[in-house]
Each structure stands twice: as structure tokens, then as C-alpha cells.
Amino acid sequence: MKIKAMAAALCVAALALTSCGIEDGSGSSADGKTLNLQTVFAANTVDAQLNRTSFIMNSGTTETLIGLDRNTNKLYGWLADEWSSEDAQNWTFHIREGVKFHNGKDVTAEAVKKSLEHGIEVNPGVATALKAESIEADGQTLKIRTTQKYASLPSELVHYNNVITDVDASTDFPIGTGAFKFESFDIKGAARLTRFDDYWDGKAKLDSVTMTANEDANARMLSLQSGQSDVIYRPSLESLDAISKDSNLAVDAVPGSRVYHLIYNYKGAHANLWNNIEFRKGVDALVDREAIAKTILRGRAVVTDNPFPGDLPTSPKQLESTYNPEKALEHFKAAGLEVKDGKLAEPISMKLATYNARPELPQIAQAFQDSAAKVGLNMEIHNAENIDEYLAGDDWDVATFSLATLTRGDGSYFVNGAFMPDGAQNYGGVDDPELIAKINTFNETVNEDERATQMREIAEDIRSKAYNCYIVSPYETAAYKKTVTGWFTPSNEFEFQMVTKDLDIE
Question: Each residue of 466-485: pLDDT tens digit?
Fold first, then answer.
């Protein structure tokens, strides 16, 4: 992909937008209706297939072959209006007629092929996810043969790194197919979008959008309160009450697809304990989910004991509260540990890893530390700068973790990543042949209803064996001016666009 590095300077502080050439205020301007949106994380590259954040995907400038319905959590045709497979290995996609890239080029199967192949070439994660043995293009027909039976391929094509762009274009930003096109784009966190009048699904209501990124939640809040942003994504929990009291602002919260949980190290210093199901059940009984949801998450979370909370085809039935320190000690006895005077006769010390990217996680770690200490299970908290790198080693016993579990229409990404031996998120080394067999069967099943049933059974198996301790699913939140219409807070920012053609401002 021929992409030039940009040298434009960026102002990321919420109150310095005007110095970056971004409008002070919003609504009507000389250029028409403009909306200012501030999100959290900046992009790391102008290559959409290589980007590690959702900055490009959620901007409304790029689209994928397959979409995910925000109401039903089911797949639908986006740039591919039809797809099929008889054997879960040979796939045919029909590319929608009449779609154009922002530079006026037609979107053909050949252009889609080049885009997917570029992603496979530059991004190992894409290569692993697609498992493409070959890709062929003929007119508007795209054929993909995978290296094995792989029924999850359509859902993997929802991923934001699989957006379709004109990879032959020589530009400072991706050339996509969305309702908006980039006028400017800075990988450090700023972009200006303008309406693409030839959008295949109808013109957007806004004339332009400015997007900035700021990891400081307080700065995002100040930007909204000062009027310099129209919408901010993920305001801090501490600021929600103040924002709600402002008659000009609205707060929106939706159940997310992310789950906060504890993961265990099955190959570390205390492997003998973690490989004992009774010990794991004892630890699970020490976690006060309701208290964590009420105090740390300020009620903006769903309590869960499994990876797929809610009322979905993949969701096991939620069990009653399991917080019970006395029951925990019974499990510890069953695990072969001696209990005396309401505690472990010989205290056990472990290292509990956490990280600050999700500010609630260190607080959850503290709550668990306090609860565990009461029964003689002593947790030394270690705050890791890079949690993925830290968990790749063995110098930890248990960790707070955040992971999107029900993504791209089903749990394939989660179970393959967290429970297969070579999974990218299987940091603790879970290795259960029975569970692996169930996941492999799921991976070869094409029928959506059968897949949902199988995934629910897999989730029930994970819960019954207490491989992880699932705690809460936090709400995804946004705050915006009441003059904004057509805003939908995404339950998962990696799969649902924030900027859509229906977004508008009075």
C-alpha cells in the first residue's frame, strides 16, 4: 500500500482543539453542518489493515464485507450482499454492485482481493484470523478457500482490520467506501471527514465531522462541557452524574460485549492449585460481584458468572450469586488444603497482576485482595505497564483482565483465543482436550442456530469448570449535546461505527 507518512502537528488536549484548526463549537459553519467527536485512543498508522485501534473503523469512512446488526447481534451483508459455503472451507462472496471508492474507482472483487491480501501480508493477526489458502476474483464474485474447515470466516470479516480500501491509492489516508471520506488524517489522533456524496447507501446528513483522540477522560468531559466537542466516547464514571445534571447534555449507556474477569496461571508457581477445580471454585466464591458492580462500576455494569452475559442464544442462564466465603473454605478443604478457625491453616501468597488501561481493574484487584486475605489467601498486587507482555511470562498467579467475549456475531474470537492451546489470549495455558474438541466442532459448523447452541454449551462448560472467574460486563457509555440526533453508543467500538450517515446535529 502506497501511503505517505503525515507530518501534520496535532493538539490532543481537549481544550486546545481550536489551535489544531478544528472548529470552536459545532453545528452550522461556512462548510455546512459539522460535528465534533472525541474518542479515546489515537490511530497508530494510516494503514487501515494494520491499525491497532478502532479510530479508522468507527469513523464511517471504511466498510467491511460483512456487518453486525447492533440489535440482533447477527451478521448481515455489507459490501458483500450475499455469501455461502457448502463445506465451511470453500466460500463464495458476491460484491455489491454500484459501490465506489472515495476516489471514484469501482469496488470489484479484484479490488477486494487486493485489500484482503494486503491485510494478510502486513498483519499476522489478519493472516491467522482469515486462514486463507487462496483468494480468487472474477467480476463481482470473490472466492476464498481456507486452510481448513472454518465456519467463522464470515464473522472474522467483520473485524475492523478487514475493511476494504483501495490499496493501490497513493494517499495520506485510507481510501474507503463509507458515507464520509477523509479530508485530512493524523495518526496522532485527529481527522477531518467530509460527506461522500456518491455513497452507495444514500447521502449522510452531516457535511463534515472532526474526530480527535484523548486518553484523558477528564479532558474529554471538559471538552464536552465547554462546547468544543459534541460527542465524547467513554466519559469517566465519576463524571456521569455531573454530566447528567447539565440540561444541555445527555448520557447514553448500553450493555457492552466486554467482560471483566480473573484469569489463572496453570503453568506458574502455583500450577498445582489452579489445576485443581475445587481450588478454582473456592476462589470464585470469594468474588463479590454485586458489590463490585454497585461500588466500583457505580451500577453501570451487568453482573455475570459466564463469558456471555445477557439474554442471547449464546448466553447460559445466569446462576444465583456465588459470593460465599464459607463456601470458599469448603472448596479449599475439598482441594486438600487445611482450614482452621475460618482461614487456611497455612496462608498462601500469590501475585495478582492488573493494569490501568481499564481503570476499574486495579480497583477490582484491590477488592479481591481484601476478600481473599480474610481467608488466608494473600495477594500481592502488581500493576503491569504492558499486560500482554507481562502475562506472556510466568511470574504471576492470577490477573484481572478485560476481553471482548461476544464479538462479530458469536464467541469464536473469544473461545479460540482464550481456550485453544495456541490462542493469543490463553495466557494461563488452559489445555482441556474435551473443550478443544467442542471448539473444533463449532469451528466447522456453518448453520447459525447450531453455532449458537454449541457456543452456549461451550460457555456452560467453561463456567462449570471455573477456568476463569467472570465478574461483570461494563456498560459502554457516551455523552453528547442534546442537539445531536442519530447517535448510537456502540456496544463494541471495534465492530460498530460511531459515525454513520444518520448522525446529525441541529
Answer: 999 999 999 999 999 999 99
